[in-house]
Amino acid sequence: MRLKGKVAVITGAGSGMGEATARLFAKEGATVVATDLNLETVQAVVEAIRVAGGEALALRHDVTSRTDWENVYDEVQATCGKLDILVNNAGIALAKPFLEQTEEDWARTYRINIDGVMLGTQYAIPLMEANGGGSIVNISSISALTGMAGAGAYTASKGAVRSLTKAAAVDYGKHNIRVNSVHPGYIVTPMSAPHMEHPDYKQHFLNQIVLPHLGQADEVAAAVLFLASDEASHITGIELPVDGGVTAK
Length: 249
What we know:
The chain is globular and about 50 Å long. It is of the alpha/beta class. β4, α4 and β5 form a beta-alpha-beta unit. The longest helix is centred in the middle third of the chain and has 28 residues. The strands form two sheets. The protein has a seven-stranded parallel β-sheet with strand order 3-2-1-4-5-6-9, sandwiched between helices. A two-stranded parallel ribbon has the order 7-8. It has one domain: NAD(P)-binding Rossmann-like Domain (Rossmann fold, 3-Layer(aba) Sandwich).
């Protein structure tokens, strides 16, 4: 088991890539603290993990709330006694032409996609320092590497996640805290499936990649697992695309 004895907090774990990561981490031996704004969905994920023999805890969590982050980490300390891994996965996508985006659109996207990462990282680092180190994996996007039409606020926020990752990696590497980012491409999730697998649009998405299939949430989770594990003990500050070759073009 690649995460045996590790304690991991995973945000946005109620569905999609967060759910896949939570299930995989538990399978690999981690105690998973799965958080999501929707408590019902994340409780279902945790129940499935427990039925499969894993250890997990579900918490309702608004990643834009400093108080919620404090509560999450208080629970981690009380229940688990340490923190080894943080996966900042929670995020939103706003598909709206750049000239139509309002200040409210911009602010909401930034609050969730980058402020949530900043807060989680701020609270994680002292716990990881006390534990002799740790691993933070931030979920960005290929839009942070290539740009993406019709999603200015989203692209900018995911670019900020990429830059914050590198800054934190440099600042806390000497504390044995590794910080890396994963950049998913066209990944089929419950949120994206109605578009990506629609007969009228699927070929468009397939044309963007060089592999013959669209990405799956489990494939992103596998990349996150590698960076979170001790197998990546000398890797920090990198950006790892899981994109079927989009960024190779």
